[in-house]
Design goal:
The chain is α/β, with parallel strands linked by helices. It has one domain: Alpha-Beta Barrel (TIM Barrel). The chain contains eleven helices and nine strands. The protein has helices at about 25-40, 60-70, 90-100, 120-125, 135-145, 175-185, 200-210, 235-250, 270-280, 290-305, 315-330; strands at about 10-15, 45, 75-85, 105-110, 170, 190, 220-230, 285, 305-310. The longest helix is centred in the C-terminal third of the chain and has 19 residues, at about 235-250. It is globular and about 65 Å long. The two termini are about 25 Å apart.
Length: about 350
Amino acid sequence: MTPLADVPFSILDLSPVVAGDSVSDAFQNTVRLAKLAEELGYNRFWLAEHHNMPGIASSATAVLIGHVASHTSMIRVGSGGIMLPNHAPLVVAEQFGTLASLHPNRIDLGIGRAPGTDPETTLALRRQPTSLGQELPALLKELRSYLSPPYPGQRVRSIQSEGKEIPIWLLGSSGYSAELAGRLGLPFSFAGHFAPEQMMYAIDLYRRVFTPSEHLEKPYVMMGVNLLIADSVEEANELASSQILSFLSLLKGAPRQMEPPKPESLKHLNLQEQAFLHQRLQSSIFGDKDLVTEKISELLGRTHSDELIFNTMVYDFDVRLESYRILADIGNLRLDPSPSIG
């Protein structure tokens, strides 16, 4: 089994807006968390693109990445991810080229294909709802052309990104992006925090079709994990009820800000809600330090992931910080920082 100290740990942040707080509060908390992550030895700090969700403030992802990078000095900062079909590839290249110019060798560009929102907002983003992300290969090819050295006579260029080291990752929750990442020889980050039922299929497919490239000699898998650590298993499960109830509100098409823990509400779920939670939470890890250590070891034993990226969503921000402190201790991050891609 892979020793925990040999696997880099990273953080995925959605800049959550909890009930009673403002968007400004969420951004301040994101910076505080990023500073702590850097201090504790986490490998990278990623922010995710979601739209029209009252409880998530990271929709202007590139802007927030720049803000976080300007308040830190070493940790890698990037997107987990940018939903490429929402954007013109040239604009993404210019944004991330600018970020890489301001913060050399610290910026990651994680790419996804889902809209990250509801159908109405998808239309507001100028997307065709019937495309289902099938345009991703063409958009990715165009984006990569802007990140490469210019060819003679090239008429359209992203001046900011030329010659910059901007690692591209593909993100996914199914086999589609896994296969594309493998065939292109790119690192792959699987969304185990919300699609665990596809986990083994996707990473096995990625490794099976992987073709070495100038960017990557062998497959590299980063696994997304929901995680919450508390003093006891019972306390962790109680605190996690805030995130679970947020999941349910999303299922009902009424996303909202995260509310204080209400474990008693989980005792009155219908069969559809129970099935949804069973599907979404089967790879989530909630518990005390000992249980979490055991579950992370089991996950690594099953997936052989090269890196883990953790998403801790809880109402009390101080609890969130403490959970990441304990996780850093589990991974011995300050004692043995591990090298990784980028």
